[in-house]
Amino acid sequence: MNSPRLLLVIPCYNEQEILHLTYAELCRYYAEIKDRGLVAQDSKLCLVNDGSRDKTWEIIEELCAKDENVIGVKLSRNFGHQSAIMAGLEKNMDDFDCFITIDADLQDDINAITGMIEKYREGARIVYGVRSDRRSDSWFKRFTAEGFYTIMQKMGVPVVFNHADFRLMDKRVLQELGNFREINLFLRGVVPLIGFKNEKVFYSRLERQAGESKYPLSKMLLFAWNGITSFSTFPMRLVLYFGFFNFFVAMLIVGYILFSYLVGYTVPGWTSTMLPITFFSGSNMMALGLIGEYIGKIYEEVKGRPRYIIEKVVNE
Ligand code: UDP
Ligand code: MG
Question: Where is the Glycosyltransferase 2-like domain positioned along the sequence (predicted)?
Answer without folding.
Answer: 8-177
